[in-house]
UniProtKB/TrEMBL annotation:
Protein name as it appears in the record: Elongation factor 4
PANTHER family in the record: TRANSLATION FACTOR GUF1 HOMOLOG, CHLOROPLASTIC, TRANSLATION FACTOR GUF1-RELATED
Gene3D superfamilies from the UniProt entry: 3.30.70.240, Elongation factor 4, C-terminal domain, Elongation Factor G (Translational Gtpase), domain 3, P-loop containing nucleotide triphosphate hydrolases, Translation factors
Catalysis performed (reactions): GTP + H2O = GDP + phosphate + H(+)
Topology in membrane: Peripheral membrane protein
Family to which this protein belongs: Belongs to the TRAFAC class translation factor GTPase superfamily. Classic translation factor GTPase family. LepA subfamily.
Species: Candidatus Vampirococcus lugosii
Compartments, record wording: Cell membrane
Amino acid sequence: MKNIRNFCIIAHIDHGKSTLADRMLEITGTIKKSDHGQVLDKLDLEQERGITIKLTPARMQWKGYELNLIDTPGHVDFQYEVSRSLSGVEGVVLLVDASQGIQAQTLSTLYMALDYNLEIIPVLNKVDLPAADPERVGKELENLIGVDQNDIIKISAKTGENVELVLDSIIDKILSPDVFLDIYKDMYYHKIAPEKIKDDNNITRALIFDSVFDRYKGVVAYIKVLSGSIKVGDHIKLSHTKIGLTPTEVGHFAPDYEKDKEIREGQIGYILTGQKSVRDAKIGDTIINIQDDKLKIKDYDLLFDNKKIPLKDLAIPGFKRIKPFVYSGVYPLNTNDYEKLRDSFEKLTLNDSAIEYEYENSLALGNGFRAGFLGTLHMDIIRQRLEREYGIETIFTVPNVIYLVKLKDLTLEKVKTGNNILEIVKSGYHKFVIDDFDERDSNLSDAEIADKYLEQLKYWMIIRSGSEMPEPGKIELIWEPISEVEIVGPQDYSGNIMDLAQNHRGVLKGMEYIDNDRVLRRYRIPLAEIIVDFYDILKSTTKGFATMNYDFKGYEQNDLARVDILVNNERIEAFSLVTHKDKAYNLGKSIVSKLKEHIPKHLFAVPIQAAIGTRIIARETIPAMRKDVIAKCYGGDVTRKRKLLAKQKEGKKKMKQMGSVNVPNDIFIKMVSRN
């Protein structure tokens, strides 16, 4: 283990992270030089968009040392994936574009790496570009992490200039896994784990930092072995999902799968689990294997000194369920493609455990799904994959967040049956609702938690879309998710940034100067305010210079309301949304005005209204399509014309009572889908 170095590269999108990984693989002889760039970005979308969507490991040999690299995504939507990667390494290469400087999302990941006590190796990339300013960016890094400018390595990942210095620095500065574990042992054990177990080498513990589905191999778990070893045929347990596995193959990444006899302590590799869904090998779970006859596992408890110790107490801390933050309705453009869409979602979830979906029906759009995503980029990627890989054109409704609602009574059907309680517990939102939730109860089953905290949970509901929101008279209070947003931008655009944040209900929590020109601002903003168009407006108002990062921070009560859109006095569920009451009027007025432009005229007048409960807050009317019924009257008495007009008026009145308004699908593409 002394000659093993585990590291990952953290950088903002398009700062050259995957290009640097390519050069490292070529210099170490792991791969041959190729015209095909971004070897570790294997998805077509990654190649086209120039971003890393899935993390990818690779093992290299350099000067007698084994170097294990994890190439991680840089976008905030995949932050949890990055955090698990950081748990599996002892150091990071901080890669910064010498022309752009450090960005908000890089800062967030950097602070996370410092929390993990990882060694930071600062590297400036693209120093060969005419716009590069390594002196200025070097001072930024000096101010942020306190490094000497002379210790910053200046490279060009594209040409390979000074990349060997980075490899040498990884060997010299990053600790070997055994030394790192000895110094920071408490990071990898729960506080309640017995001291004897911490020093027992007969227990194998490994972290699952990613899992993917391979059509030929099944579920492949990417692991970092903390102690012990794993080989084919071992009977291993997963501490959180409580599943037993027997690996059918183990190996490392070169960067493709390469078989080994075993994966040893300190190494990064993979195991074939034999499972059919990545939900059975969740990111962040811990593999446990007992290699001592004196120790036994019974019913997911470890028998140690005649005491039962739950396997969760041996788990590597930090595991949490991946909860989608953004929800959207997904409907096939062709209503006959519903079955095909359902099958496609099933296949996608084999490879992406972060996606949640459930059946949903809309009067306007037909059969579809309410799907959950990590963020708007994640949602856009899934939309494109549905179109490219499965050939389905879809309509995605405007993304929304999850609200927690407390009811005044138990009259709603869902609350009467108690289904709301188990749903809250399974989703993990009970920790926000329950006062002083005891973390030790996390070891209980979902049913046991629901039973213990029944009185506190029975009035609460999870709301995933505006159409699910109960009537105002039934609601006692509404909680909405809150995010902490970091914005890095030039001082010249401070006014624009401040106006944007205030218009989206932002509260300034602090600011600091990165250098003479750029300022880092921290805001507390409701998550619903930033998931649709906040980033686009930020980019346009700052000429593209500002960057942002956001992190979910919990729930807060606020004065919110459901705004319904009625067309010809019928509620269109797909348009129902939740917003702050101060914004409801302007938002409702905007929607009905746009609908008036897009809905075609009918033979009768069509009212379009925005309402909160029974109160109408905005209205537009599409005038009736006019037919000239008196065109055939070439003369005669005026009473003849009046009779024809009166007959037409009576017919329109009857038609309005019996007729229905057709809202074409293309209106939902224009009005609802913002992708």
